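Box S2. Input/output pair 1.
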Amino acid sequence: MARILLVDDDPGLLQMVRLMLERTGHQVTVAESGEAALAAAFGQTPDLALLDVMMPGMSGYDVTRALRADPRTESLPIVILTARGQPMDRQMAMNAGATSFLAKPILARDLIQHVNDVLAGAATSASSQPMSAPRSAAPALEESPADEPAYAPESFPVLPVITVIGLHAGVGATTLSVNLAMLLRERGEKVCLVDLSATGGQVAPQLHLSFRASWADLLNAGERPEPRTIGNALTTHPPTGVAVLAAPTNPINRSLSQDVAVHVLSVLATGFQRIVVDIGTLNSATVGALLVSSAIVVVIGGEGTSVNSVGPLMNSLQGLGVELGRVRVAVNRINIDAGTPGNAIMKAIGRPLSADVPFDANQPQALQYGKPLVVATPDAPYTQALKQLLRTL
């Protein structure tokens, strides 16, 4: 086990790579800026640093030079991981003092192998010539061969769970989760809506739902909470009958373990036809939800930054053991400026869009009154786009 300092200004991707490294036994410290990276490196003396280049303030190159200039970290192995993969970028990394250079996108297994090689001293020649992982130029959505999985994860049941994950904060993933649950209910299905946020849930506030219990009440219920205990943590949304497992109102520094999350969802699946799970940052509970989902909806915005992050996200999901065949991509137009056209997005991400959800000016009013758009405006283009999405799940 090695101590790895992981530095990236994208919180979502930061947590995904962290979980991948931890699954292989490494101890990971994360930092979202160059300044925080230096503080962590000087204070904890990691065994390896994995740095993004493009960050506000200090770039990855700046951090590398600062680490090389300090006696405490002058010999620290440093791997630059960046979407900038031109020869000039490689040379800049080496000139700054990086041990090696990896270009995104990269398969999870290749990233892990490269990190382990550097730690073992197998990449010592990288200081004299740029180095890349064997398949670093592979397409972002390349599948692992059936006989060569990125990991050999435990066998998880596939449940009637739709997990919705926003590529970035502010893309409207929670709103989309709520509306999907309402559409399923309108189709006559028995639905449970689960909010696994640990930073202050938004599902209940969007529905103006008062609740006395949340998933936090299951933290001390053992590894296999009783069905009655799980049932007592649910709250029914009176207008629709959708059951809600709410998140705590205030941020909490704990989450359900992966095993408990899988158990809870398995119990819920015995009483509900569909379970919609809204997740924010990745943790043990949300990874558990991803692994048992029959469908995963990745929600992106229409801007270029969000689109460019789809490939790395897919590789990260694959590295966690998620089957990419279960993943759907939906564009949610949260601004009146539509952004990048759907055809251009599909070309950029190399896969079809399951939905292109249009901007709806009535969304603020729907949130204000706690009445989801698919209920308030059943014939609107927004509702029709979500119905199209449901047909793919």
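Box S3. Input/output pair 2.
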Amino acid sequence: MTTIKVNSLPVLEVIKDLATAFDTNYTSNICEYEVRIPSKLGIGNIKAYELDNGLGILHYNCAFHDDMEIKFIVNEVHPLKFIYVTTGNLQHRFENEDKIHSIEEYQSAILANCNNYGHILNFKANTLVAQISVEINRAAFNLSSAYKSEDVDTTLYNLFTDKEATEIFYRQGDYSLNIADIFNTLKSNDDNFSEDRLVQNIFMQSIAYRILFFQLKQYLDESKNTKSQNVLRRKEFEQVKKAVIYINENLESYSGIEELTRHTGLNPIKLQKGFKYLYHFTVNQYVQERRLEMARNLLLKSDKSINEIVTIIGLKSSSYFSRIFKDKYGVQPSLFNKNI
């Protein structure tokens, strides 16, 4: 295993230390700083964005030939970190603990160490890891008007106002689709980097605040019991796709969204959000679209009667079927073949 040390803060100084450790140079462009991984060590890059109000972003997109350990150790209060793994797997541990946290693809972690203890990241050999870390210097981060409100969650209040790092904190889970969308926005911006320092700085500030907004919203959502949680996590995508397969295979007997809840384990609000996100339909709209498509194919390719088709697609009323079919295709189903 190769071990390197980063003994500086904030994120710009981290990039400088990494460049020194990798025996290479770093580059700067507006508010973006980048160190490329030398070919003798691996591939990819690590970028940093130094922003206002004590905010910074570290963006890793790299793979190393050998196991790589990066120790962030400096005798100062370390930032509050919001880590997101978009590709691969990352291992983290606190400098003062032996326990290893494995953060998988599509997972996030909120973490803060106590006193001046640092963080240690481990990258497995020949494994591409894409990871984004929003870093907050709590001594410089100013939300004093919000802190004065009695409506602030106690844990969040303590986490953001712990400027001396008296408490250790770790929380891990799957990140939401909203946050995944932000990462896609960040990725698409790589090819359209603004040449104006002000514009680019504001853009990256917005990225950091949007990530924090949706992460904290998710945190509050997770404080509820499981059945009342409404934020759709990235991994729950697969459950929504499972619901779609179920609908397509059971149109004749499908009875409603409660059936999907039992089959997938997702509550109705999450199912609706997932269908809207993936297919731009509510669940009922999606079911109706599939039923009408099946009916159209049966009218074109079979000799089945209207009543038979109504039964096959899971409807009970021929008159209702005729009405929604005409709304979509502009002709009564009894005349559809002739019109074609």
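Caption for Box S3: The domain at 232-340 is CATH 1.10.10.60 (Arc Repressor Mutant, subunit A). The mean pLDDT is 90.
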